């Protein structure tokens, strides 16, 4: 035990000398020392909602609604399994940050070779770009649908979101959490209302949560399933979770304080990810209840927007108000995801390459790396939403492929007693995480093999 304490002490010293993750908000939120359960939980509630936002961003919308429209309720099982995986991984991510005082990017840089670290940084940056593609496109199209703003201008406006985030950071991290929670509430209420109007089959929904073998054997279903996994379990959220779990004040010299922080951070994470699970389920249920069997083209946000006001497709509930609510929820989703995506970009950039530039420039660089490819596509395709949105499903599948490159270091670090001491993963957590990682890699390889075979054929 003394050896572990020494290692922990040295580790904290390293953190102080190298710089804290998200230094401007690290340890900025007070927590009660001797408060009751609910008071303490309220103090720790917040980071989970920022994490959950990534699991209900615009990238989920097309894959989930398309999944319902094509295969009815069958892919609800994929959403359930993905959400359980997310809860497991995000709890490990938060614990990593709480125990070590470092985020996943910092630890990966330290404990891998220069070449491996560089490769993992590139993959992490590409994952951020893939995530932002969905957020930027979703926000830009929502602005066009709501205010008739040209798509290219809407995309440029999303680049300015970084300035809003800078302002919010000055107001305090709790303010950011509250604003994101409000945006998530808007998304949840809109889709709960629209699903209630669609009158879905309760028996069909319950049956959909039971996994079926054709999810794997049917190539089209597998492709969409991996898109849902990629949109649900987000690589950048693992980096983000390991950082923002450190926003609460903590004395790492006291194991009881560490254990309490892990406990309440895990509860917060699981509660918020349950909300994300509900939202993702609502998206798929909406697709199944309104569009299954209609042979409608629903691969794009504009198609969905138009379909909700078309009585020939969705029946008597069709109305312009449903379409506008959809666009409002899309904008809320894009904006909330933008905040967390930008934070994750900063964590990855600082952690892997120690980029030392002014904060505003750092956030702007992170954002521009993501906006640029979308803007190029928008110009090339003359703001054609359908062409631009074709990037979405591919981006979500790429996220699924990129996920193991973040999960493997996470499982290794949190399972190491040398790094985590007495807080290392229990055996069931470690083996469950490795099984999840292996299954995901196998599915990714299978999907890529099928894609290559289709191209060759």
Strand content: under 5%
End-to-end distance, in Å?
60 Å
Largest sheet: none
User: How many alpha or pi helices?
Assistant: 22
| Class from helix and strand fractions | mainly alpha
Unreliable spans are 1-17
The helix fraction, in percent, is over 70%
Structure explained in plain terms:
The chain has helices spanning 2-18, 37-44, 47-53, 58-71, 76-100, 104-110, 114-147, 151-159, 161-171, 173-198, 202-208, 214-217, 219-232, 235-244, 255-291, 301-307, 311-314, 320-353, 359-380, 385-414, 417-420, 427-456. The longest helix is centred in the middle third of the chain and has 37 residues, at 255-291. Helix content is 79%, strand content 0%. The protein contains 22 helices and no strands. α4 (58-71) crosses α20. The relative contact order is 0.20. It is globular and about 65 Å long. By secondary structure, it is mostly helical.
């Amino acid at each position: 035990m003394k050896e572990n304490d020494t290692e922990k002490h040295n580790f904290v010293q390293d953190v102080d000398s190298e710089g804290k993750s998200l230094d401007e908000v690290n340890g900025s939120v007070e927590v009660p020392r001797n408060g009751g359960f609910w008071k303490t939980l309220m103090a720790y509630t917040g980071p989970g909602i920022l994490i959950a936002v990534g699991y209900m961003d615009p990238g989920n919308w097309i894959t989930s609604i398309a999944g319902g429209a094509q295969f009815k309720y069958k892919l609800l099982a994929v959403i359930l399994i993905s959400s359980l995986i997310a809860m497991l991984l995000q709890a490990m991510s938060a614990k990593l940050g709480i125990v070590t005082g470092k985020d996943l990017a910092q630890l990966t840089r330290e404990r891998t070779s220069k070449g491996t670290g560089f490769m993992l940084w590139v993959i992490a940056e590409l994952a951020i770009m893939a995530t932002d593609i969905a957020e930027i496109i979703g926000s830009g199209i929502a602005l066009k649908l709501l205010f008739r703003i040209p798509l290219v201008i809407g995309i440029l406006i999303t680049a300015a979101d970084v300035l809003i985030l800078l302002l919010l950071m000055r107001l305090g991290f709790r303010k950011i959490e509250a604003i994101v929670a409000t945006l998530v509430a808007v998304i949840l209420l809109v889709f709960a209302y629209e699903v209630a109007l669609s009158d879905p089959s309760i028996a069909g929904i319950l049956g959909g949560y039971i996994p079926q073998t054709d999810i794997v054997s049917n190539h089209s279903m597998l492709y969409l399933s991996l898109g849902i996994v990629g949109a649900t379990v987000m690589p950048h959220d693992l980096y983000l979770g390991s950082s923002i779990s450190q926003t609460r004040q903590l004395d790492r010299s006291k194991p009881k304080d560490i254990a309490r922080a892990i406990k309440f951070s895990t509860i917060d994470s699981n509660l918020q990810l349950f909300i994300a699970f509900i939202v993702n389920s609502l998206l798929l249920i909406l697709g199944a209840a309104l569009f299954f069997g209609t042979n409608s083209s629903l691969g794009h946000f504009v198609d969905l927007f138009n379909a909700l006001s078309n009585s020939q497709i969705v029946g008597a509930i069709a109305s312009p108000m449903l379409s506008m609510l959809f666009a409002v929820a899309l904008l809320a989703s894009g904006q909330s995801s933008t905040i967390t995506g930008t934070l994750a970009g900063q964590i990855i950039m600082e952690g892997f390459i120690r980029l030392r530039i002014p904060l505003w420039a750092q956030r702007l660089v992170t954002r521009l790396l993501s906006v640029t490819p979308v803007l190029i596509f928008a110009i090339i395709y003359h703001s054609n939403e359908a062409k631009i949105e074709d990037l979405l499903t591919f981006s979500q599948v790429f996220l699924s492929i990129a996920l193991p490159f973040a999960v493997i270091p996470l499982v290794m670090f949190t399972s190491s007693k040398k790094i985590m001491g007495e807080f290392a993963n229990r055996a069931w957590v470690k083996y469950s995480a490795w099984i999840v990682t292996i299954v995901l890699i196998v599915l990714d390889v299978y999907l890529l093999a099928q894609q290559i075979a289709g191209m060759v054929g």
